[in-house]
Design brief:
Hemocyanin, N-terminal domain; di-copper center containing domain from catechol oxidase; Immunoglobulin-like; 3 domains; seven-stranded mixed beta sheet; three-stranded antiparallel beta sheet; 20 strands; about 30% helix; binds CU2-O2 cluster
Length: about 675
C-alpha cells in the first residue's frame, strides 16, 4: 500500500460530521464508496449521488468493497448523541471499534471500514477510536492527525466565534484573504469578573490546556485492547499528571488571590461553583447544559447510557479504597490480599481509582473517578427526564473548563496522598555522594531570578471543523498567557574525582499561603510544579549547567499544541513525522509558569541532582517523542525515570521548612513572577 493511501486516512478528520462520500480535504478528494455502504435510503440513488459529487474533484480514491466487520456495538450510539470516555457503555463501544480498526489487515481495509463508519457511526466515537488506532497501529506511524480543536472547534470556543468564522468562510474562500480577517475569540467569555472563579478562567478555558488533557486520555485510554491500555506505569501517570494539574491550578489561584481548591469529598454536599459553558454541541445541535450554583449529585438512572448508580456507591468505593490504603493491601477477586508496595503500589491504586481495565478488582473497588465525572456532568438531569446532554465534566476535551473538575481531582489526589503518606521518608535515598549544588539562578530579560508573563495572541486554523460551509480557511485568534523565556544556571561541584551522570530535577512552588504567611513545607510540597528534568554529565570539579526554559520536559511548543497540517515536518512515515504523533500530548509551553502578579509573585525554584545510575531506565529512545515525557511518558517505551513520579516531593517529609530538607545535592532560590497586563501578538516563527 502506498503512503498516499496512508495519508488519505487523514481525510476522515476533515469535516467530521459530513459523510465520507462528500468532498474531503483542501485539495478536493472524494472517496468512491461501494453502494452497499450508503444508508439504505440512499442506495438506490448512490450511483447518481457519486457521479454528482465526483464532478470537478481533483482526485478520486476508490474504496475497496470488503466484508464489513460486525459494527453492531459501536452502532448502538446514536449518530447525534454525545460520546464520553467516562461513560462505561461508551467506553465499551470505543473499545470494540478500536479493536476493529486495529485488526484490519492492511491500510486499504482500514480505509474501507472508515469510509463506512463515517456514514454510520457517531462522529465523536469514530474520531476518538480512529485516533487511538492511528496512534497504535504499526502501519500508521508518522500520520499526524490534525489538532482536535481544529476538527471539533465547538468544544473549545465561543459559538459566536464559530458563527463569525462560518460567515467569513461563506463569503471568502480565498485562503490568503480570509486569513487577513481572523475571528477573535474573546478571553473570559463565560462569566463576568464579579464571579471570583472567573479570575482563573484563562487557565481553565485555555485551548492548549484542554487539548493536552484530551490528548492525554487519548494516549492513555482506560478501556480498549489490553496491549493499548497496558502502558508502563500508566496508573501512576494518571495520578501524577492530574496531581500536577492541581498543583498548577492552585498556584494560579494563589496568584489571583483565591484560596487553594477545596477537594469535593462530601458527595451529598451542594456544589457552590456554577458553570455556564457557552459552547456549541454540534452533534446534538444543542447547547452544552450549564450547572447552576449549589447543584447536588443525584442517583443516576439513564437507561440510554446504561448508567445506573447511586451516589452512595461513591462512598462505598471510597471506603474500600481507603481501607486498602490503611492496610496497604488490596482485596483480589479470589478473596486473597495483595500488598501495595513502595514501588508499584501507586500504579495499582491509579488503575483502581480511575478505573481502567487494569484494575485488579473492578467488581469490588468500582469505578470511582470516572463515575464522579458522570455524577457531576448529569446532575441537572440524572434520570434523563428532560433528555438533556451531559455537562462539560463528561468530556475529556472540555472537563478542565469547569471549576468543579479541580475540586473533584483535588479529592482524587488526596486519596493518592493517603497512600503516599504511608510510605517511609526517602532519607538517604535522596543523597548523591560527591555532588554539591551550590546554587540555582534564573536569567531572564527581567533580570536575575525574575520571571515575566504577559498575554499573547495566537491563531488557530478552523478550516477542517467548519462543517457544511464552503471550503475555505479561517483563522481564529485567541489570547493566552505567555512568559519570556529564561535560562537556569546551576553551579555544581563534583568532588568524586571522576565524571558522573546526574538527573537534574527542577521544581517551582509558591512560598506564601492565602494569608500571606510562609507555607508549611508539607503544603508547599503539594504545590511543587515540575518544571524540567534531564540527564546531565557532570565533570569532576566545578561546573555550571545551563538549561533554557524551552527545553522543558513537561511542555510541548505551540506548534505541537495546535499542529496545523501545513506545519508538519517530513513526509508520513519519516522519522521526523513519526516523532510528531505522540507529541500532541504535553503541557502547552506558553503555560509553563503561573501568571504571577504585577508587583511580583514570590516563588521558590528548587533543583536536585540525583544519581543517574539509580534513576536510569535502559532503553533506546531514538526516533521517539520525548518532549513532554514527564507528563506523557514516551511512546511505546518505559517511563524514562526509575524514581517515583514527582520524586522527591511525592512523599511526606519531616521538615517544617524546605531549608531543613535540603541536602548538598540540592539548592533553592527565591524568585518572583512579574505579570504585565498587556497583549502582545505572537511573533512570526522562523
Ligand atoms: Cu483526566 Cu478526570 O481524568 O479528567
Amino acid at each position: 500500500m502506498s503512503s498516499v493511501t496512508k495519508k488519505d486516512l487523514l481525510l476522515f478528520f476533515d469535516r467530521p460530521m459530513e459523510p465520507s462520500f462528500i468532498t474531503k480535504g483542501e485539495d478536493g478528494v472524494i472517496f468512491q464508496i461501494p453502494m452497499n455502504y450508503f444508508p439504505k435510503t440512499l442506495q438506490a440513488v448512490s450511483a447518481e449521488l457519486m457521479s454528482r459529487f465526483e464532478k470537478g474533484v481533483k482526485r478520486i480514491v476508490p474504496v475497496r468493497d470488503i466484508q464489513l466487520p460486525d459494527l453492531s456495538v459501536p452502532k448502538q450510539l446514536d449518530f447525534n448523541d454525545q460520546f464520553s470516555v467516562f461513560i462505561p457503555k461508551h467506553v465499551k463501544m470505543a473499545a470494540a471499534l478500536i479493536n476493529i480498526f486495529m485488526e484490519m489487515r492492511d491500510l486499504e481495509e482500514l480505509q474501507s471500514v472508515c469510509a463506512y463508519c463515517q456514514i454510520h457511526i457517531n462522529p465523536y466515537l469514530f474520531n476518538y477510536s480512529l485516533s487511538v488506532a492511528i496512534l497504535h497501529r504499526k502501519d500508521t506511524q508518522g500520520l499526524n492527525f490534525p489538532s482536535y480543536a481544529e476538527v471539533f472547534p465547538g468544544k473549545f470556543m465561543d459559538p459566536r466565534t464559530l458563527k463569525r468564522a462560518r460567515e467569513i468562510n461563506a463569503i471568502e474562500t480565498n485562503k490568503e484573504k480570509s486569513q487577513q480577517m481572523p475571528v477573535v475569540i474573546p478571553i473570559n467569555f463565560t462569566a463576568s469578573d464579579l464571579e471570583p472563579e472567573q479570575w482563573v478562567a484563562y487557565f481553565r478555558e485555555d485551548i492548549g490546556v484542554n487539548l493536552h488533557h484530551w490528548h492525554w486520555h487519548l494516549v492513555y485510554p482506560a478501556d480498549t485492547v489490553l496491549s493499548i491500555v497496558n502502558k508502563d506505569r500508566r496508573g501512576e501517570l494518571f495520578y501524577y499528571m492530574h496531581s500536577q494539574i492541581i498543583a498548577r491550578y492552585n498556584a494560579e489561584r494563589l496568584c489571583n488571590k483565591l484560596r487553594r481548591v477545596s477537594p469535593y469529598n462530601n458527595f451529598f454536599e451542594p456544589i457552590p461553583e456554577a458553570y455556564f459553558p457557552k459552547l456549541e454541541s454540534t452533534v446534538a445541535s444543542r447547547a452544552w447544559p450549564p450547572r447552576f450554583a449549589n447543584s447536588v449529585m443525584h442517583n443516576l438512572h439513564r437507561p440510554m447510557q446504561q448508567i445506573k448508580s447511586d451516589v452512595y456507591e461513591l462512598e462505598l468505593w471510597r471506603g474500600r479504597l481507603q481501607t486498602a490504603i490503611s492496610e496497604m493491601a488490596i482485596l483480589l477477586p479470589d478473596g486473597s490480599k495483595m500488598p501495595l508496595d513502595e514501588e508499584t503500589g501507586i500504579d495499582v491504586l491509579g488503575n483502581l481509582v480511575e478505573a481502567t481495565i487494569l484494575s485488579l478488582n473492578r467488581a469490588y473497588y468500582g469505578n470511582m473517578h470516572n463515575m464522579g465525572h458522570n455524577f457531576i456532568s448529569y446532575c441537572h438531569d440524572p434520570e434523563d427526564k428532560y433528555l438533556e446532554l451531559y455537562g462539560v465534566m463528561g468530556d475529556s476535551s472540555t472537563a478542565m473548563r469547569d471549576p468543579v473538575f479541580y475540586r473533584w481531582h483535588a479529592f482524587v489526589d488526596d486519596l493518592f496522598q493517603e497512600y503516599k503518606n504511608k510510605l517511609p521518608p526517602y532519607g538517604d535515598k535522596l543523597d548523591f555522594a560527591g555532588i554539591q549544588v551550590s546554587s540555582i539562578n534564573v536569567e531572564s530579560v527581567r533580570g536575575a531570578n525574575r520571571f515575566s508573563t504577559h498575554w499573547e495572541q495566537s491563531e488557530v486554523e478552523l478550516d477542517g471543523g467548519l462543517d457544511f460551509t464552503p471550503r475555505g480557511s479561517v483563522l481564529a485568534r485567541f489570547t493566552h498567557l505567555q512568559h519570556d523565556e529564561f535560562t537556569y544556571k546551576i553551579n555544581v561541584h563534583n568532588s568524586s574525582g571522576k565524571d558522573v551522570m546526574g538527573t537534574v530535577r527542577i521544581f517551582m512552588a509558591p512560598t506564601l499561603n492565602e494569608e500571606g504567611n510562609q507555607l508549611s513545607f508539607n503544603d508547599q510540597r503539594r504545590l511543587m510544579i515540575e518544571m524540567d528534568k534531564f540527564s546531565q554529565s557532570i565533570p569532576a570539579g566545578s561546573s555550571t549547567i545551563s538549561r533554557i526554559s524551552t527545553e522543558s520536559s513537561v511542555t510541548i511548543p505551540y506548534e505541537r499544541v495546535f499542529r496545523p497540517q501545513s506545519n508538519r515536518p517530513g513526509k508520513p512515515g519519516t522519522p521526523a513525522a513519526a516523532e510528531f504523533d505522540f507529541c500532541g500530548c504535553g503541557w502547552p509551553h506558553y503555560m509553563l509558569i503561573p501568571k504571577g502578579t504585577p508587583e511580583g509573585y514570590p516563588v521558590i525554584i528548587y533543583v536536585m541532582i540525583s544519581n543517574w545510575e539509580e534513576d536510569r531506565v535502559e532503553q533506546d529512545t531514538t526516533g521517539t517523542c520525548k518532549n513532554a515525557a514527564s507528563y506523557c511518558g514516551i511512546r511505546d517505551r518505559k517511563y524514562p525515570d526509575r524514581r517515583a513520579m514527582g520524586f522527591p516531593f511525592d512523599r511526606p517529609i519531616k521538615a517544617n521548612k524546605i531549608t531543613e530538607f535540603l541536602k548538598p545535592n540540592m539548592a533553592i532560590n527565591d524568585c518572583t513572577i512579574h505579570f504585565t497586563d498587556k497583549v502582545q501578538e505572537r511573533p512570526p516563527q522562523a
